Amino acid sequence: MNIKFYPVDITYSIEDGKPLIFLYGRTAEGEQICVIDDSFKPYFIVTGKPELDALKAVKQDDYVVTDIVKAKKNLNETETDAHIVYVNLPKAAPELQKLARKIKGVTGAYEHDIPFTRRYLIDKGITPLTQVIVDAEKTTRDFRVPCYFAKNIKSGDETATPLKILALDIETYNPDNKLDFKKNPILMIALYGEKFSRVITWKKFKTEDKTIEFVQSEADMLARFVELVHQFKPDMITGYFTDGFDFPYIFERAKILKVKLDLGLDNSALEIAGRKETEAKIAGIAHIDIFKFIKRVIGRGLKTDSYSLDAVSKELLGKQKHKVDMDHFFKVWDKGGEELEPFCKYNLQDTLLTYELTEKVLPTLIEFVRIMRLPPYDINRMPYSMFVEWYLINQAHQRGEIILSKPEHTEEGERMRERIQGAFVYEPKPGYYQNLVVFDYRSLYPSIIASHNISKGLVNCECCKDAPKIETERGTFWYCQKRKGLFATIISDLILIRAEVKKQLKKKSDNLLAARSEALKVLANSFYGYMGFAPARWYCIECAESTTAWARHYIHKAIDTAKEAGFTVLYSDTDSVFLLLEKKTKEQALALMDEINKKLPGLMELDFEGYYPSGIFVSLKAGEGGAKKKYALLNEKGELKIKGFETVRRNWSYIAKEVQQNVLSIILKENDPKKAKNYVREVIDSLRKNKLEVSKVIIKTQLTKATGTYTSVGPHVAAAQRMEAKGMTVSSGSIIKYVVIKGKGKIRDKVKLPEETSQDEYDGEYYIQNQIIPGIERIFAVLNINVDDLMSETKQSSLFGYEK
DNA sequence: ATTATCCGGGG
DNA sequence: GTGTACGGATAAT
After folding, report:
1. A164/B4 CA-to-C1' distance in Å
2. How far is A648 from A300, CA to CA, in rounded Å?
3. A33 lies in a domain?
4. Which of these, A84, A105, A82, A79, lies nearest to A96 by C-alpha position?
5. Considering only CA atoms, which of A526, A522, A459, A518 is closest in space to residue A486?
6. In the predicted model, what is the mean pLDDT of chain A?
7. Interatomic CA–C1' length for residue A645 and nucleotide B5, angstroms
């Protein structure tokens, strides 16, 4: 019979000396099933012309060679003699390849370090979460889902994946602010899915809430949890930091209480892997720790600098956690009764947030799963470098290119010491400027790699000595012009695929398409970093060196062409150029861009980033000439674009940020230094006279450890201690708010909490010197306004009671 | 400056 | 498991 289904998870096991692949997933009809395939054989590859009889005879313990097949392959992008050496067991490959290397005629052994289940997906061209059509027959097995034996398996149409998601969260007994898996019980477990919400707890109280379910004990709660998961039959269990907290905690408690956690669809137990950083695995169900995915993949695009469930939910969903006093949860538990209900609701809200966050980022996760052809469990835990690597592995296999091995430890160490010359920065003179245009190279590094055919196997080929060459500190490099390289092909493909996606996206906006476009962009941009990444299989320092060298070449080219055309170049960093128009027009600048573009090879292109009526460039520190990455621009819409200033930082008071922003705004919009000066003077004056309200002088700093453990007590620690003295609980991660008040001694002795500070108490002089002045002094330096002068004049003016 | 270490998330 | 942390910030030298 033919079954259409969507694989979610993949495992393998050995039965009767033979490896079996288990694909778990959901059918188009919505049934959860397992498809078993016994047809796939483990193997590795040898290059050279081996003595076949000797190679065939290679064995160790139970490991034997079962077959050898001659194959045409490329090694490092050059044709090579190769043989595929089939072995009886997956683990035989890494062992037997060591012996195979010693056989006469063998020049190398490869592809012995690819995990078996991943090997299966690559070779069969099967993509998780994407339709697979399998010719199968029913088989009997003691699994939780019906099993089928595969006779033939192939990929099907791209359609929406039917997925059942279940979110999980636990609350624990926690009396001394220390998480103790061994001592403290789990008090509640919440589950949330489509048309399903439940909180299980083991202390009964009166409630109308039907979602709360009471059991007799912690052990019963754990058993009930397992039962509910089996009833719900999720494809995906999702949680927030469940790899590091909820599942390891459940695991430890179940061990102590002797509860079976047979969550796996093959009846296997929940598995906790890793010593320092744990991972939780359930056979057949994709456990997604959405915190990990958000932090590693989505996080770059978020404004929040905390990845707490509360902060992330607020930004992505516009929803937050319930506010309850977690510090006293254990007391409420001890006492029992109806006061426990808000904690149940809090527990459930966390699962709701987790569920919705998962729904929100799932398109991106699915896109990565499809591009990298790896299970969602793996994608969830993978760093970017590995996205590039597994994409390369898939592409290499399709092209008959031998997958290179991971470097040995010593090799990796040597690579770590290799440094490459970075990007070019043209430092601007600090100053105030008008009429600027900004150009930047679109996807500079990827387009260089594609256009110059930069690839590991093509460095300084013998056949193309007349290819374009690039000088670097490491030597002169060129790349073969006769063959298209692996990197270049893959990157041009990525760029073209993305252009197509963007075209579709223009026709109609779509979540999945947008995620796809973003994933492809990020992937292309990661190639440069990958080439210089020590543990990379396709590590190529010459390629990385050539890429930055060409980048420097092209940015210089743009700068020189602009200068020749009579433009003043103000600033340049990596891929962008800032020009002053002076007497020239925007049209002339655009013509210059066209001229530069005409001479660029391949996919490279200089883009018009924008026109700015005014801008200010500020030196980083007094004495340091340049103003690298510290500038503010005003666009034609009147919006400020601020780079590198302190305005966004949390540990500055509101008034400091406000003054800096307003000064920049006055300068850029009105070009009126006098007005800016007077404005600051007024603020200084109102600080001196304590006219400004307390709320504007609150400083916020995050506490990073418990108050008692600090060796040097900073102002925020002193404030935290005050809070503790008042019976409030603070802990690592709390944001401490404080105000500096008048008085003598160290700052930490002059700290008060905002609610205990009256308006005439705060130390205006402190705020002027430590918050206002540092934020504006470099801006004023550019405008030749003397800050000391500003201060004394204010003193006078306030003394005589008039403004100058 | 450069190198080692600590930490996040979770209650 | 045919493989495994990572990246950023802060403290220490």
Report:
1. 45
2. 16
3. yes
4. A84
5. A459
6. 89
7. 29
Separation CA A582–CA A736 (nearest Å): 49
Q: Are residues A616 and A470 in the same domain?
A: yes
Q: Residue A709 has what pLDDT?
A: 60
Query: Do residues A667 and A594 both lie within one domain?
Result: no
Same domain, A430 and A479: yes
Give me the DSSP letters along A585-597.
Answer: -HHHHHHHHHHHH
- Please report which helix (H) or strand (E) contains residue A720, including its range: helix A715-725
Q: How many whole angstroms separate alpha carbon A172 and alpha carbon A180?
A: 9
Question: Environment class of residue A148 by beta-carbon count within 10 Å: exposed (0-12), middle (13-18) or buried (19+)?
Answer: buried
Range of the domain at A21: 2-159
**Contact between the CB of A125 and strand C at under 7 Å:** no
Asked whether residue A715 is assigned to any structural domain, the reply reads: yes
- The pLDDT, as a whole number, for residue A704 is 60
At residue A8, what is the residue type? V
Using one digit for the tens of pLDDT, what is the confidence trace for A18-68? 999 999 999 999 999 999 999 999 999 999 999 999 999 999 999 999 999
Q: What's the pLDDT score for residue A627?
A: 53
* Percentage of chain A lying above the pLDDT 90 cut: 64
A120 and A126 Cβ atoms separated by less than 8 Å: yes
pLDDT band, residue A451 (cuts 50/70/90): very high
Q: What confidence tens digit (pLDDT) does each residue in A784-796 have?
A: 888 777 776 554 4
Strand B: positions under 7 A of a protein C-beta atom = 7-11
pLDDT interval class at A731 (50, 70, 90): low
Domains held by chain A: number: 4
What CATH number has the domain bearing residue A690?
A: 1.10.132.60
How far is it, in rounded angstroms, from Cα A215 to Cα A203?
Answer: 7
**pLDDT value at A802 more than 60:** no
pTM: 0.87
CA of A709, C1' of C11: distance in angstroms: 14
What pLDDT is stored for residue A416 in this prediction?
83
Mean pLDDT of A338-350: 96
Question: Does the CB of A320 sit below 7 A from strand B?
Answer: no
Domain CATH code at residue A29: 3.30.342.10
How many Å from the CA of A388 to C1' of B3? 29
Strand C contact at CB of residue A277, distance < 7 A: yes
Whether A108 contacts A75, CB under 8 Å: yes
Cα separation, A89 vs A746, whole angstroms: 70
Q: Are residues A46 and A185 in the same domain?
A: no
Instruction: Indicate yes or no: strand B within 7 A of the C-beta of A177.
Output: yes
- Measured distance CA(A454)–CA(A485) in Å, rounded: 7
- Confidence band for A803, pLDDT divided at 50, 70 and 90: very low
pLDDT class of A713 with cuts at 50, 70, 90 = low
3-state helix/strand/coil string of A366-424: HHHHHHHCCCHHHHHCCCHHHHHHHHHHHHHHHCCECCCCCCCHHHHHHHHCCCCCCCC
Contact present, A494 and A500 (Cβ < 8 Å)? no
Residues A406, A537 contacting (CB under 8 angstroms): yes
